Amino acid sequence: MNREATTTDNTVAQNLAEFSSLSEALDYAAAGVTGCNFYDAKGKLSVVLPYGELQRQARVAAGRLLSLDLKRGDHIALVADTHPDFIVLFFACQYIGLVPFAMPIPLNLGSHAIYVQQLKGLLTSGKAKVAIAHKEFISFLEEAAVDNDDLEWLGTPEQLSDITPSERPLEPSRPEEPAYLQFTSGSTRSPQGVVITGKAVMSNLQGITRTGLKVHEGDRCASWLPFYHDMGLVGFVLGPVASQLSVDYQRTRDFAIRPLQWLRLISRNRCTIAFSPPFGYELCARRIRSADLQQLDLSCWRIAGIGAEMLRSSTFKAFAATMAETGFSSNAFLPCYGLAEASLAATFSELDRGLDVMAVDALTMAERGIAVRVQSDNRKVNEIVNCGRALPDHEIMIVDNEGGLLPDLRLGRVLVKGPSLMHGYLDDQESTNRVMLENGWLDTGDLGYLFEQNLYLTGRRKDIIIVNGRNIRAQDLEEIAEGMDGIRMGESSAFDIETGDGGQIVVLVVECRLTESTARQSLVKHLQRKVYEGFGIYCYVDLVEPHTLPRTSSGKLSRVAARKGFTDRVDLAQAIISQAETA
Amino acid sequence: MPASYEEIQEKVITELSKLTSPDAGLTEDSELVTELGLDSFKVLDLLMDIEDEFDISMPVNLLADVHTVRDLATRIHTVVNTPS
């Protein structure tokens, strides 16, 4: 095992994702000296995996998987902790036409039961034939696999390495075959798997490395993003392989506890590219003291990417102000927009420009859906961050609810078109048809407007609540309520409310038949606990009379109406106080 | 650094008392999330203090079964007394 991290400089000429498949990308990278490096909680280097070694191990693991006599295209579920084995197994699948998908690790206190439910849902929806987890997580996986008749093999990477590799030749995944599945929600009932072909992901990686990031020699990545999220997987596992960059990993949990370690890693290894959802920057600004910054030199950090959710410019001003003395340049901020259904990225803002914010009149935006730029005066303004232009060969279009094209500065639904789009949702033609429109357009469900071809995102899908960097589907919260005794499907509604000071509260309104006050109290506590275990967030639970949640004409629950009903009925200040008291 | 269960429990309660209101009535059976209302930031603070104090790294798989102060102290005790 190497004692030193892989170098930033390479011995082969840089090729920016001009490969037809992921295995071809790894074969090219394997000829050089760059690779991945894993750091422990204290920032000490624990494992070094040069791409040559990754290729060798992946091919051996591929031979072992072949011995399991699976069919080409079968799905392999991997519990994706930040560990070299995940990358090895992911690429092993690429060498033999198997389709891996990443499953989360449990991060919340007391989440055992719900985590097992989550895994169960993923194994079933993902139709996994093989499931692999490290020994720390194997017992959860075993619990989740009880009653699962599809699984043909379950074990740890160590157990897999006891299998004698097959002698059969490796037949890598072809560009038009699925390369992997990406699950986009933590739902326990119906997680949705995005099917991404080799061709789609390579096209996205080309756009990201050549145009979005303009990767060049001397670049080096640092990442704490979970391997089971698209940004962590595509952006910081597949991206570095496809552009032969060295990358330094730390575990998500270690970053969350000690965000300073991320900055130390960047400073020490002279990393140039690191991304985070806004939450990560907020965590840094919040948890790092200025005395900690003295040894840091962040002048090397040329791209501080921001993705995955709505941006609030104040977060980044605070981060830049805290980091000013480290040589960090606020021009390094690079907002971008993407979604798993487009492999990862759809738009990138311009490099070296920092945040470009448009101040628009809040009232006109809310009432008429028009972005009217305003200078500073007394009117209430919304600051909307420019997420940049579509990647080459991709297009962005804004449409109204009837699908009619909208002009610049008019708010509507964001559609994306291009070669990076998914093949569809796994075994879910109905959902696929709902988002894959005619002429190759994908309805992202997100809201925004265009100005001079730049995308300004104003809201993510209505049913997604973003708390501390996590995208939580409203229906996943509702499912928790519906899993309780006495609460039926369609009797709860989840949404979030902005509290005006940049904060938010998550609300779960539940129709409740209980009349006795201690029973009602205990239901509230129980629900709050379940939501915390599943999602790590506090939620305000509001119990209402049966049959009082507002419905649409087709009988579906309307979250928009439920939110309005809640704000009309409940004193917001009281809800905030109750949150502050428990928190 | 080996430490007894009692020492660890006392330490956990001391750290927790900094994060919760004085009348929280902390006991071994206090539920961290539902009773004490620790949000995710406070959980991170608590873990950092504990890891620094005992010079350990708490594995995430163990935290999945932590509901009460006792659950947490028991698992810290296990980690502290497991040779690395």
Provide key terms for this protein:
heterodimer; A: 583 residues; alpha/beta; Rossmann fold; Luciferase, domain 3; GMP Synthetase, Chain A, domain 3; 5-stranded mixed β-sheet; 4-stranded mixed β-sheet; 27 strands; B: 84 residues; mainly alpha; Non-ribosomal Peptide Synthetase Peptidyl Carrier Protein, Chain A; 4 helices; globular
Structure description:
The complex is a heterodimer of chains A (583) and B (84). Chain A has 583 residues and is of the alpha/beta class. Among the domains of chain A are: 22-193, ANL, N-terminal domain (Rossmann fold), CATH 3.40.50.12780; 356-459, Luciferase, Domain 3 (Luciferase, domain 3); 469-582, GMP Synthetase, Chain A, domain 3, CATH 3.30.300.30. Chain A has 18 helices and 27 strands. Chain A has a five-stranded mixed β-sheet. In chain A, strand 11 (273-276), helix 11 and strand 12 (303-306) form a beta-alpha-beta unit. Chain A starts with 21 loop residues before the first helix and ends with a helix. Chain B has 84 residues and is mainly alpha-helical. Chain B has a single domain (5-80), classed as Non-ribosomal Peptide Synthetase Peptidyl Carrier Protein, Chain A (Orthogonal Bundle), CATH 1.10.1200.10. Chain B has four helices and no strands. The radius of gyration of chain B is 12 Å and the shape is globular. The A-B interface holds A 40-42, 105-112, 115, 136-137, 140, 253-254, 256-258, 286-287, 468, 525-526, 528-529, 532-533, 536-538, 581-583 and B 31-34, 37-44, 47-48, 51, 57, 59-61, 63-67, 71.
